[in-house]
Design a protein that fits this description.
Layout (H helix, E strand, L loop, with lengths): L9 E5 L5 E2 L15 E6 L36 H7 L8 E6 L5 H16 L2 E5 L4 H11 L6 E5 L3 H11 L3 E5 L16 H18 L2 E6 L12 H5 L2 E6 L6 E9 L7 E7 L2 E4 L18 E8 L2 E13 L8 E4 L3 H13 L8 E7 L11 H13 L7 E3 L2 E2 L5 E2 L4 H10 L4 E4 L11 E4 L3 H8 L1
Parallel strand pairs: 4-8, 4-9, 5-6, 5-7, 7-8, 15-16, 17-20, 20-21
Antiparallel strand pairs: 1-2, 1-3, 9-10, 10-11, 11-12, 13-14, 14-16, 18-19
Helix pairs in contact: 7-8
Protein name: DNA repair protein RadA
GO molecular function: ATP binding; ATP-dependent DNA damage sensor activity; ATP-dependent peptidase activity; damaged DNA binding; serine-type endopeptidase activity; zinc ion binding
GO biological process, one term: proteolysis
Amino acid sequence: MPPTVVKSRPAHRCSECGFAATRWMGRCPECQAWGSLSEVGGAASGGLRAVVPGPVTGRARPIAQVELDGSRAVPTGIGEFDRVLGGGLVPGAVLLVAGEPGVGKSTLLLEVAHRVAESNGPTLVVSGEESTAQVRLRAERIGALHPQLFLAAETELSAVLSHIEEVNPSLLVLDSVQTVRSPAVDGTDGGATQVRAVASALTGIAKSRGMTVILVGHVTKDGAIAGPRALEHLVDVVISFDGERHSTLRMVRATKNRFGPADEIGCFEIGDGGVVGVPDPSHLFVSKRAAPVAGSCVTVTMEGSRPLLAEVQSLVAQNAGGGSPRRAVSGLDPQRLAMINAVVERRGGVPLGNSDVFAASVGGVRIVEPAADMAIALAIASAAKDKALPVGMVAFGEVGLSGEVRRVGGIGRRLAEAARQGYTLAVVPPDPGPVPRGLRVVEIPDLGSVLNRLF
């Protein structure tokens, strides 16, 4: 009987997202792009080839004997940025910084490159979106001129590699990865194939030379990082740089960090002199007023290891126009607010069924952790009853559907921050632990009891 011959089937790959298919289709089922699938050759045949031992890059050693000197973080001199990174820039690391246009990414990274040039030798900034003259003007405005800071404007990967060989920098900033293309790879400029090829090439060079690479990435209209998901897996650190356009506050968060915590936050304020770190940003999220007003409550949120004071405001108005009551949210989770509304009405006895409820955070900060449930509930109840909460009070705790108040993490640090900021009363879940001096703590087991006590 003649042996069975396994025929290879042609493979087709999308030039936009990298999706592979066994047949040609007019539209990619993954990214919905038209005419992006092209044949790339035959698929692998069914047999498994034998794998023999080959050369190794280095012999295995006991883990305690592995050297750490080349992997220690080097501080940049910008405290808030180093806090997010876990101490500073690690040699050979690849960072991806993403954010909306105009949020201040290029300005912050130019300042980072300037600080590294002062302390650690040559740095190279390659811009694919601006000319060197435009970058020079920004550097003059923020005072980032230095003889060890080199600028280049390139959109070809081969030219970028030539600059790296010539300058031999300790830090490379590429602004942005979507504007640089590799001539060795097919695909549209800024497409998934090109972005993956450019990032892979720079990652290999960073690891071999011990050079830190910072890639600036674009974001989609939904706020997600543009490009293939493999780009986030390829890099070592993913940083999100965001902020409201009408506010000067900018938040830097690490969503992935192989060298430190992935939940830290850095606060910056943007102005004429560039992006300036704000080591104590709690005052930015709390209103300053002469007298207390109804519908306002201060809470303490945890951003990584940092406690931050944040104010929640609410407005409850009678729905005079008929129809369904409105529920509008800014800076809070809409689904969480809807749940808290129901708990306040059902367990707290506050009628809200025929009222419009509006809730927002102060200062443009986004509050998503469940520890703010208590403050949101008290703000809604205060607005509905038109009675202000006591002066100098903070509240935090997770509210359940049955109205119980649950414990949250970091209660000690939250209470210490509230006492440091001058607050004298804290409404917290049961069993908070040690209480700082000068702070009176009221333990609340359920939402109904705190509403009866306050109102």
